[in-house]
Amino acid sequence: MEDICWRIARYMREHDKVAVAYNMEIQEIAPGRAVVSMVIREDMLNAAGVTHGAVTYSLADFAFALAANSHGQVALAISTSISYPAPSRVGDTLTATAVEEALTRRTGLYRVEVRRTDGALVGLFTGTVFRRDDQILELLGREGA
Q1: Which of 66, 86, 84, 85 is nearest to 10 (CA)?
Q2: Which residues does residue 95 pair with via DSSP β-bridges, in sequence order?
Q3: Ranges of H-type helices in the chain
Q4: Distance of alpha carbon 87 from alpha carbon 67, whole angstroms
Q5: Per-residue pLDDT tens for 70-115?
Q6: By CB neighbour count within 10 A (0-12 exposed, 13-18 middle, 19+ buried), where does 38 fall?
Q7: From the centroid of its chain, how far is CA 117?
Q8: Cα 44 from chain centroid (whole Å)
Q9: What is the pTM of this model?
Q10: Contacts of 47 (CB under 8 A, 6+ apart)
Q11: If we measure between CA atoms, which residue out of 133, 128, 67 comes closest to residue 105?
Q12: Are strands 73-83 and 93-103 parallel, antiparallel or unpaired?
């Protein structure tokens, strides 16, 4: 199953324009779990000089998407929420760890922690997906992957 998880994750990384633009790197992938990291750049800051909330959210959301789709069934977000307990800055490496908390035939619930290299929690994200009937491997097949 892990080979399929990596195949799905690579496909998603190559086709997710935000993950590409932010140079997100997949560190780990397994059924219901994903770890993704990125380095904060100058162009990712808000007016206060800290990482823009949308950037932290994007990292958490991509890890969430990988974990939710790792089973091979297309899963789309229907609800998400994030809190920002601490800031991050230029040069920080952020790592998002997504873990499946509950899975049914039609829904999945995920928790994502985003941490700086020093271990400080900079984002706490929760998300729920709706699991469609179609399979991600069908998408890969259409791409010739």
Answers
A1: 66
A2: 37, 115
A3: 2-15, 17-21, 53-69, 136-143
A4: 25
A5: 999 999 999 999 999 999 999 999 999 999 999 999 999 999 999 9
A6: buried
A7: 17
A8: 17
A9: 0.94
A10: none
A11: 133
A12: unpaired
